Amino acid sequence: MLGNLLLYAANRATQGAVDSITRKASWGGFAVFSMLVGIIFGLIVVFWALEPRYGAIASGLFIAIGCFGVGIISMMIPQFLDWLEKKAKSAAAEPESTVAAVKDEVAEAVDYFGPLRVMGSAFMLGLGIARSLKR
């Protein structure tokens, strides 16, 4: 019974971590792709530098700088989104929202396990805490 409670708590705790890792991986992949495109265009610019004309070099250089800039911005987006989430959570950390969050978690636990298992787990946890306080 306590094992199920710990498994449920671990699943709830890691749900946000998986979402965050997925977001960072997707934006990181886009950043790597953009930087790779920037390197390719940079090599094209080096090739064109060997040519006697300079018109193609300037256009290739602008494309390479643009792709590299997009890659840098893509790498900064996950940190910016994390910052926005932390800012929103700190603004929403009022007592009413905390009580509502606890109520929602309890309702989800009851829906997941059923009322008898939740009551039994709560009783066992309370009994364990009471024994530790008695000592």
Number of helices: 4
How much of the sequence lies in strands comes to under 5%
Rg of Cα set: 27 Å
Overall pLDDT, averaged? 77
Distance between the termini: 25 Å
Helix content: over 70%
The general outline is rod-shaped
- Number of β-strand runs: 0
- Judged by helices, strands and strand pairing, the structural class is mainly alpha
Mind summarizing the main beta sheet? Answer: none
Low-confidence stretches: none
Q: What's the order of the H and E elements?
A: HHHH
Q: Helices, strands, pairings?
A:
Elements: H1 2-49, H2 55-91, H3 95-113, H4 115-134
Offer a concise description of the structure.
It is built from 4 helices and no strands. The protein has 135 residues and is mostly helical.
Q: Explain this structure to me?
A:
Helix 1 (2-49) runs antiparallel to helix 2 (55-91) and helix 3 (95-113) packs across helix 4 (115-134). This protein has 4 helices and no strands. 92% of the residues lie in helices and 0% in strands. It has helices spanning 2-49, 55-91, 95-113, 115-134. The protein is mostly helical and 135 residues long.
